[in-house]
Amino acid sequence: MPEQSATNLVLVLNGPNLNLLGTREPEIYGATTLDDIGAMLVAEGDRLGLIVDMRQSNHEGHLVDWLHEAAGRGACAVILNAGAYTHTSVALRDAIKAISVPVIEVHLSNPAARESFRHRSHVSPVAKGVIQGFGAKGYALALDAAAAMRQGDL
Predict the structure, then answer these.
(1) CA 9-55-8 angle, 5° bins
(2) Which phi and psi (to 5°) does residue 2 adopt?
(3) Which residues are part of the catalytic machinery?
(4) How far apart are CA 41 and CA 114, in angstroms?
(5) CB of 140 closer than 8 Å to CB of 104
(6) Is the pTM of this model over 0.90?
(7) Is the pLDDT of residue 1 over 70?
(8) Strands (E), the chain
(9) The CATH fold of domain 9-150
(10) Do residues 101 and 76 lie in contact, with contact meaning Cβ atoms separated by under 8 Å?
(11) Which tens digits make up the pLDDT trace of 115-147?
(12) Mean per-residue pLDDT of the chain
């Protein structure tokens, strides 16, 4: 496992209902659990020289606090799947805008291809980039992007 430094820490933050991955609407979100995604990201992080700190909360304030913490800990990136808060949370938008850590927005499904209330993201305008519609693989793509940003390639 790589030693944590201010330049190789990536926080992976997951919002409401993502603790139910694998059982909640698998036809939309797949059969992969959040624990499966976490294990995959830790292994991929080791390969890339990144420390992955993965968390999930059903509470908006926890996500805001963790975004602030990412800045305080000198994280090189945050990968954020805000779940339904994507479409409702001005607080998350403001927290992202308030920190200098780049945030990569991730969604398992493609919100633009779903219900109209999912078409608007409060996160996208303040995120470095957005990866959506590729299932659990989207998290790995986001981690690759974080590594590329760390190396100055993005």
Answers:
(1) 5
(2) -65, 150
(3) 29, 107
(4) 27
(5) no
(6) yes
(7) no
(8) 9-14, 51-56, 77-81, 103-107, 129-132
(9) Rossmann fold (3.40.50)
(10) yes
(11) 787 779 999 999 999 999 999 999 999 999 999
(12) 93
